[in-house]
Design goal:
Blueprint lengths: L7 H9 L3 H23 L2 H20 L9 H23 L22 H18 L4 H12 L4 H8 L3 H27 L1
């Protein structure tokens, strides 16, 4: 049977029973979503690569040891592992006082979303993405996480609420406050430019 049409749980069962192709299908299914979340959190490709690899090493070990029991919730489970590793990364940085002020925020655009645009339109869209991403850095972490999950990882509010262990209304409220806060930041920056 073709692995692309199997459910996550069916692929997990096949992988646990020794079918490495089943895990490759899971990895292909969620690679972009997980990597994007990690990269947007750490903003450095080398660190994102390491955390991404560590995430899937933990996933493999957990599956092999039978520690995955969240039937039907594989993607949120993997995102939670990645999220915890991102938090561990920042804790280690804070403890060793090696936090850098690296503001080289490079968004990698790998999709076809810009293929129909001319060079000027592409440049404008990339600048808007960069500006929005910089605004996210000024949001409280609980608001930033919601925006990242919703708009960069295309998670539904239901998936977000399950991932963060909050109710949907809380997720919606945090998104609302994030948008309000981002609008305020844009307005303040416009006022500073005029002054």
């Amino acid at each position: 049977m073709r692995t692309e049409i199997l459910s996550d749980n069916a692929l997990i069962k096949q992988f646990v029973n020794g079918n490495a192709t089943a895990f490759n299908a899971l990895l292909a299914r969620y690679r972009k979503k997980i990597y994007t979340y990690i990269y947007l959190s750490v903003k450095r490709k080398d660190v994102a690569d390491d955390i991404f690899q560590e995430t899937f090493i933990k996933v493999i070990r957990s599956l092999k040891e039978g520690r995955y029991a969240e039937s039907g919730k594989f993607a949120p489970w993997v995102v939670r592992i990645a999220h915890n590793l991102v938090i561990d990364h920042f804790r280690k940085l804070r403890q060793s006082n090696e936090c850098s002020n690296d503001n080289t925020d490079r968004l990698s655009v790998t999709g076809d979303e810009f293929s129909d645009l001319n060079a000027e339109e592409r440049a404008v869209r990339l600048q808007i993405r960069k500006d929005v991403r910089q605004l996210l850095d000024f949001l409280p972490s609980e608001q930033r996480d919601i925006v990242l999950m919703r708009y960069y990882m295309n998670m539904s509010y239901k998936e977000i609420s399950e991932q963060l262990n909050i109710n949907i209304n809380t997720a919606l409220g945090r998104m609302r406050y994030a948008i309000i806060n981002m609008r305020k930041m844009v307005e303040e920056s416009k006022k500073m430019l005029v002054a």
